[in-house]
Amino acid sequence: MPEERRVEIRGGAVTFKVLAAGRGAPLVYFHSYYERSAWSPFLDVLARSFSVYAPTHPGVAGSTGIETLDDLLDLTLAYDELLGALGVERAHLVGHSFGGMMAAELAAVFPSRAQSVTLVSPLGFWRDDAQPADILILPADELAAVLWRDPASPVAREWAAATGGDPDDIAAQVESLQRRSSMAKFVWPIPDKGLQRRLHRLAAPTLLIWGDDDRANPVVYAEAWQRRVKGAALRLLPGGHMILHEAPEAAARAVAEFAGS
User: Fold this and answer.
1) Per-residue pLDDT tens digits for 16-39
2) Are 85 and 109 in contact (CB under 8 A)?
3) For position 123, which CATH number holds?
């Protein structure tokens, strides 16, 4: 089981809940807002080879202080301060969806922080001819069909039950709203916040992982990321946007092989 830590920055204005486990080179994981918990089988596999740190974004799952953050840049600075407080000078950065966007921002603004970067279907780009799904406003039943390759699979059904899919589960409904409102602060109305203009600063080896049936963030965006990040490699895996949970062993193996090479 991972160890839980509470790490304060800015005199306590922002507090991160951080789960940590494993031994080896440090690896920091930035989660998607649509993960039902801060730890997953994907991270269990990575913890066999790395010291994994999994902070939760301010505003969800025990991390506080989102009201003190101005924008995406301020969140990026907060994560830099968190790594300093953890004593992690340089790490493999891994992020999924919004977390991928966050990992890319951190690696672009603070290049010395990144030993390698793995981005799993990251947000941050926008094309009028291939718009990502508006996952902030979709109702639970429609959201599942967009995020998961097979919304009837056991893992997807378990996720739906824990993330507001049951209208009678008030606690789950409230947490779902908190996650959506926290994410909206940094990506609304569209996720293009100028990241493309900063990606030339990303100097670390970079791997892109995409589910080949990603309906939330179409695979066409993988090609756009490859064009923007010099030397970026791409791995397509069978699955949807929630590929880390649909195929945790295969995804973790891809990350571990890349980061360890």
Assistant:
1) 999 999 999 999 999 999 998 889
2) no
3) 3.40.50.1820
Q: Which two tokens stand for residue 107?
A: 């690696």
* Count of CB atoms situated within 10 Å of the CB of 201: 11
Token code pair at residue 215: 């309906």
Beta bridge partners of 235: 209
Is 54 within a domain? yes
Does residue 246 belong to any structural domain of this protein? yes
Q: How far apart are CA 102 and CA 211, in angstroms?
A: 19
Number of domains in the chain: 1
Task: Give the whole-angstrom CA distance, residue 192 versus residue 47.
Answer: 32
pLDDT in tens, 105-147: 999 999 999 999 999 999 999 999 999 999 988 887 799 999 9
Please tell me whether residue 197 adopts helix, strand or coil conformation.
helix
Q: Is residue 217 part of a domain?
A: yes
Q: Is residue 43 part of a domain?
A: yes
**Residue carrying the six token digits 């946007």:** 241
Which domain covers residue 112, as residue numbers? 3-133+187-260
Longest dimension (CA), the chain: 48
DSSP H helices in the chain: 41-46, 72-86, 98-109, 140-147, 154-162, 170-187, 220-228, 243-246, 248-260
